[in-house]
């Protein structure tokens, strides 16, 4: 019946204070705590829920990157995914890796694994791109349900309630499709200890982008990374007149 | 004291105005150093990795429990302490997460992991609430171990699967007249055909309010002294078993501590755990391991308290600078951090020694004794560093201070630990 691919990205943990590298080529990642992207956790939870409700048969967790990403795949396995795929990308290719390359990889895997659904987080908290889901759908020419806050499978179609600027939009799309998870889609489960033990036995397959016919060349070059400007201290005034006077003085009004 | 971490993960960044929840938020991901797995260490060609090296499984467990404790347990802590009552939701979630049967075989619904994993779990729980940690510790290091090591197939079948899924256990050794002098216990078990009649009373029994099964140490033959002590499995619904009113304690208030009255209770012969008259050996054996669990609890308590206090010192400004920047504060903080590190190494090493099947009793005593002292020092200092607010119940440090005191008392007082260590040291110089 159905197989779902879920993308999980290893990112700097949300609680870590980010520091820019002295050469301004990027942020410091060495020795910094990493974990699964929170939106990817929500995506995994949704996929596992669908499996528990028996809408789908198998959930495959996929991550692209160096050997460390296997930790992230294991966490997805501990949450209930059946098996994992590690697409090995390292060195310069990994640093330059972006939504375009990832979506090509996912599109190739979706075809190879004959997936009915690809579920991704809506964006990653490190680059905030919000592009991979959309690009993957475009490459596959599949319908997409992005910013999903509710997903219901009904036969061969999926009803998706999307969070948009104006409120909520409900769409019906046919499968196979790409979905991206928004914050309120669900609350990810904690990996229970017995599931962590079971995850040890689940398989993680290794492959390279070349095996999927994907070229990792990036068309984007990062020129410089800067810290945001430090916030200047504010000034307190005693009365409204003082406030008006100050605003006039610095030319604001 | 607004948290500056505004990643769009709303379930953590809430209620900035309440100091308790802000403090809790800071506890996550205290270390920015990723730990090395044993596999990684081996790959680097390091054949004697440092003690803070964990297998992939241990690391994942620790992270999972850390997250669970900070997010799911933290909101209950203050209320449970005030009402002196462990919330049934909390106990249920401990079972659901698989934390109550860490070493139990999956065949019986357990997690099938190792002793060191239990130690890490207890430490992570204690960072948030020492009462929850002790419930988990007693279950894993005392009750489950006794059943696993000594249970007949039938007993294991009957109890292990319950202990890993929904039933709490209690270990009943102490009495009003026998604490440190445990083997002078007076509870008697008289044989009548194929059952025993047990009479006596027990005191200071942890988990008693919630336990479904009690492991009661009673003497079948007082004339044989301690060689008559036998371990009996007593179900909660046994007629004549009365659980008294729980103690109103200084600390560890959410953990129920009750006296027990055994009034002519009938226990079938098949409910003897292990061999008749060997109870004293089992008690000593299990308490040696339980010691390391308590060390882990005190360690987590100290670390959790420290993790609450230091961020405050980095934010509080007096005389134009952070109070952390005053040399006297820095020296105190560094000193306490050193003590905690030393306590951690003692605890982890004792746990690894036990797992390796090497002698570990002296080291376990050292770990328990040292960490309980470190917990006392740490919590006391943390209140001082936080000044007036540290003294109020709005902030969590005063609870850690109250909770730590029991560390030097239960599962072998500090004096008992020191005497035990001295006996070993004496023997070491025998030749």
TrEMBL record, chain A:
Gene Ontology CC: one annotated term: electron transfer flavoprotein complex
Subcellular location: Mitochondrion matrix
Function: Heterodimeric electron transfer flavoprotein that accepts electrons from several mitochondrial dehydrogenases, including acyl-CoA dehydrogenases, glutaryl-CoA and sarcosine dehydrogenase. It transfers the electrons to the main mitochondrial respiratory chain via ETF-ubiquinone oxidoreductase. Required for normal mitochondrial fatty acid oxidation and normal amino acid metabolism. ETFB binds an AMP molecule that probably has a purely structural role.
Record text on subunit structure and interactions: Heterodimer of an alpha and a beta subunit.
Keyword ATP-binding attached: no
Record InterPro entries: ET-Flavoprotein_bsu_CS, ETF_a/b_N, ETF_b, ETF_beta_N, Rossmann-like_a/b/a_fold
Protein's name according to its UniProt entry: Electron transfer flavoprotein subunit beta
A molecular-function term among this protein's GO annotations: electron transfer activity
Residues of the Electron transfer flavoprotein alpha/beta-subunit N-terminal domain: 24-216
Family label: Belongs to the ETF beta-subunit/FixA family.
Keyword Kinase found: no
UniProtKB/TrEMBL annotation, chain B:
Annotated GO MF terms: flavin adenine dinucleotide binding; short-chain 2-methyl fatty acyl-CoA dehydrogenase activity
Catalytic activity: (2S)-2-methylbutanoyl-CoA + oxidized [electron-transfer flavoprotein] + H(+) = (2E)-2-methylbut-2-enoyl-CoA + reduced [electron-transfer flavoprotein]; 2-methylbutanoyl-CoA + oxidized [electron-transfer flavoprotein] + H(+) = (2E)-2-methylbut-2-enoyl-CoA + reduced [electron-transfer flavoprotein]; (2R)-2-methylbutanoyl-CoA + oxidized [electron-transfer flavoprotein] + H(+) = ethylacryloyl-CoA + reduced [electron-transfer flavoprotein]; 2-methylpropanoyl-CoA + oxidized [electron-transfer flavoprotein] + H(+) = 2-methylpropenoyl-CoA + reduced [electron-transfer flavoprotein]
Co-factor(s): FAD
GO cellular component terms, semicolon-separated: mitochondrial matrix
Keywords on record: Acetylation, FAD, Fatty acid metabolism, Flavoprotein, Lipid metabolism, Mitochondrion, Oxidoreductase, Phosphoprotein, Transit peptide
GO BP term (any one): carboxylic acid catabolic process
UniProt KW Metal-binding keyword: no
Domain Acyl-CoA dehydrogenase/oxidase C-terminal: 277-424
Pathways involved: Lipid metabolism; mitochondrial fatty acid beta-oxidation; Amino-acid degradation; L-isoleucine degradation
Annotated family: Belongs to the acyl-CoA dehydrogenase family.
Assembly description: Homotetramer.
Protein name: Short/branched chain specific acyl-CoA dehydrogenase, mitochondrial
Organism whose genome encodes this protein: Oncorhynchus mykiss (Rainbow trout)
Gene that this sequence comes from: LOC110531877
